[in-house]
């Protein structure tokens, strides 16, 4: 195969042989190369990901890094698999390091290659396919494998684990195929999250748990029962004290049989009984292993040049699965690699949260009963709250919170600090807000926390670190705080606390809504990009991507249409529309249908038509054998099932009868719906049809951030349904009531009244100015009601109603931009524009039996 | 890959940059893409998700986003990018002078 231009590839670091056929060991030598030490990492999970973060943060040039990953994917946040399963997040949202990150940092990421051998004498690792790399330092991070109970039937198709994205996909596919019965073996954190996710996917899950109560390692029996009741209320069946005897099925799973003979039907079975360290590779290489790879408190294995991190290690007899200790290990590994001093790893009290939306549950420390222990319990049955603190020698040693977990961090702080709580014992259970006597300010609890209170358990980030980082770097958004501190960047359950800290630090200037980046190609949000286009006078998409440091070469399908719109609305008359950055509908001026055909909607001004137009439509339908003709909600006629190659001829015939494109595909002005008004209706107060036609003739062809639908009703009976439109007019005896910001689609929202206008002229001017303001401020795909909610209706009222001079300027800018947009796109194409779109490049025939 | 299966399907200039054209064959439609850098790629014009016409999608880098449900397909490998999974057939491309040649044997093999 030959390409007309050389391909850009992600080159691995020196010292790697990519050619599987050659299979020779080409080990990098230092001749003429940098003298950097070679660090090879086996595994690309969250722990090694964190090691790299820390290394690059401290000394980006210390090592030449190569990572082998058995999975074909980039580094993602495994803790967030549950939100992916439940449909609350997409894969892209849980990626920690995308491909670009590795490229940017000069790290060679070898995906889909499992390392099969380590030669500790030659200091090399070998992966499947014969690829070999040498190392100065090796980091093993092979993670863990799910534990499979070896009951009969455990190898049947349909028996899954819950460990990686493939497992999540397998579960989602089963749900999509309409399978109903899911049995989850194991009622711990993972099993319950899997069950909640499967329920969200429409399945009927049953959790089978060996012990008496759920999550017995994290919850006391009371909280375990409350959790069980809540899950059952949500349609998740729970069977406790249940020992699985066998998994039944012939070609695939059909059920699970318990020890007591009970048979539970199952289309899929998810084993979530625990994990075991994946230490096989290390063991074969001759490293000391037990359950996991044995490490000292500095994460060194029995070989001085090999370290290990994550779920594959065993330290003083313990193995670890929660993210906080793994991240602590990662910090130690990075310091050791750089020769920095550390305290070393130690086994600490841990806090746990269950990530099932709507169930708040927190547990920390030791909460078993004992003779030397006391407890404080608060129950509020009506609101489903249960709090239990376990005390020993006037110190909190354990906490279980259910229903209201806001004070979890505060209690955990006292557990770790071994605070003497004698003085506050009476009010302790009510948390810090009460202890400080503060009123119900939402940030009060956070304000009351001491500086070294841990906010983000996953990443071990304390309150003062977050506040200092915000102040030093002048951070203003949650994303920035996440990027700088990692707080709330893992499981996300402390997001609320972090946001409260931001608002505590910044006061009212913090706007939690202003945080979304436009897409994966940039860190900038829509508002930033719009502002910078004006400030830096960016007038082409390539210029913008260069100047604003886009991290992809040509953008993506999310940002390109947005940028094209921002350019065209900011620089009318100057910017040349980038046709390839438009979605297909706006490129061919018709609406693509599921079978690849198109629908065609001619404009009918204000919904008014004539015998001539109807006749032309009827003729077109017959001539091109158009299968479906239908009326739309915006008072138009839609012809569906037109072949792409027929479009120009269809348009030519419609043009001939005086009809132009109805822009039914546009992010722009769509339709103005009207009632018959004072011309015919006995209740009509004004000429609503005439005003609708006038508005449409004035505004057609204008592009906008999203579609814009108008309506004009002749009286408050509102037959044109003006009060759920982007902009609506209700005619009254005294003039025109102008409404805006309605919605009747994904969301349903009545409009808000903008103002009253005396005349048609004034109405037109206000509506046009309002539309222009939206064109200038709206984020791409943000409908008017969302824009209004974001910027505030007061600001819109001030700009187009109160400030008459400003209104006139907005109006003028709209009029100016219309000069360049009011040409019929159909007519242009019937005359040959973009002709290549509408016919195949060639038709080739060849003998199908050639080979 | 027999020589007789190489077919001339058009000129380099027939395809706009960051755009696509279709080639119709008895074994279905082929989408031929040109990236911003001028590379040419040929894949089946059928998204592995629900059969959407990939030739109608937005081309970015060496990828195309399906117009129906935004699946992203890597034009080099034919693989689906990101959380979705699947693959479309890719056809070998050869440029001779200004002409684009595609090797059709991949289509035939699939049918056999």
Please explain how this structure is put together.
The complex is a heterodimer of chains A (851) and B (112). By secondary structure, chain A is α/β, with parallel strands linked by helices. Chain A has five domains: 11-144 and 275-345, 3-Layer(bba) Sandwich (FAD/NAD(P)-binding domain), CATH 3.50.50; 159-273, FAD/NAD(P)-binding domain (3-Layer(bba) Sandwich); 526-582, no CATH class; 585-666, Alpha-Beta Complex (Sulfite Reductase Hemoprotein, domain 2), CATH 3.90.480; 669-818, Sulfite Reductase Hemoprotein, domain 1, CATH 3.30.413. Helix content of chain A is 31%, strand content 20%. In chain A, strands 5-2-1-9-21 form a five-stranded parallel β-sheet. Chain A has a five-stranded parallel β-sheet with strand order 11-18-12-13-14. A five-stranded antiparallel β-sheet of chain A has the order 23-24-27-26-25. In chain A, helix 1 (46-58) runs parallel beside helix 9 and helix 13 crosses helix 15. The longest helix of chain A is centred in the C-terminal third of the chain and has 18 residues, at 760-777. The radius of gyration of chain A is 32 Å and the shape is globular. By secondary structure, chain B is mainly beta. Chain B has a single domain (3-111), classed as 3-layer Sandwich (Rieske Iron-sulfur Protein), CATH 2.102.10.10. Helix content of chain B is 6%, strand content 42%. Chain B is built from one helix and eleven strands, in the order βββββββββββα. In chain B, the strands form three sheets. Chain B has a four-stranded antiparallel β-sheet. In chain B, strands 5-6-7-8 form a four-stranded antiparallel β-sheet, with no helix packed on it. In chain B, strand 6 and strand 7 form a beta hairpin. Classes of the chains: A alpha/beta (851), B mainly beta (112). Chains A and B meet through strand 41 of A and strand 1, strand 2, strand 5, strand 10 and helix 1 of B. Strand 41 of chain A pairs parallel with strand 2 (19-25) of chain B, so a sheet runs across the interface.
